[in-house]
Design brief:
Blueprint: E1 7-10, H1 14-26, E2 33-36, H2 39-48, E3 55-58, H3 67-76, H4 78-82, E4 87-91, H5 96-103, E5 109-112, H6 117-133
Length: 141
């Protein structure tokens, strides 16, 4: 895991993309943010690029391939799994069944997107600070 690598934001809602990006900048995150509108786009990019993402922040409800299907694909691909990229769900869905399904995929976190911008920003700040401190396989300080 490279702390300076890009943040992959898998989010089909352009307003949410804008709000999340703005919040990341306001809390001082300088990592490049790459946007993916659906699961197919992020899977294809991960498979063809050697760029090591810092973090994947993924919505659950996406066209073509939902967030849980994306996570399962990564977990079932030895090459992608070995990259040990932290994968978090950041979604509006707070249904208990969805949360249970998400954690069956060994996701590293499940967070509900707040509709309140200051709360959204605070949540992202906490999430990013945690992952900036975390060490994963293949990363040395």
């Amino acid at each position: 895991m490279s702390h300076s690598g890009p943040i992959f934001l898998v989010e089909d809602d352009e307003d949410d993309q804008l709000l999340i990006t703005q919040a990341l900048r306001e809390i001082g995150i300088t990592n490049r943010v790459l946007f993916f509108q659906d699961g197919i786009q992020v899977i294809e990019y991960l498979g063809s690029s050697h760029e090591q993402p810092f973090l994947i922040i993924c919505d659950i409800n996406l066209p073509l391939m939902n967030g849980i299907e994306i996570r399962n694909y990564i977990e079932n691909s030895p090459l992608l799994k070995e990259r040990a990229v932290p994968f978090l769900f950041f979604t509006t869905s707070d249904h208990s069944k969805t949360v249970q399904e998400a954690f069956k995929t060994t996701v590293q976190g499940y967070f509900v997107k707040s509709s309140n911008y200051p709360k959204l920003k605070e949540d992202l700040s906490i999430i990013l600070k945690y992952w900036q401190l975390c060490l994963l396989p293949g990363f040395m300080r």
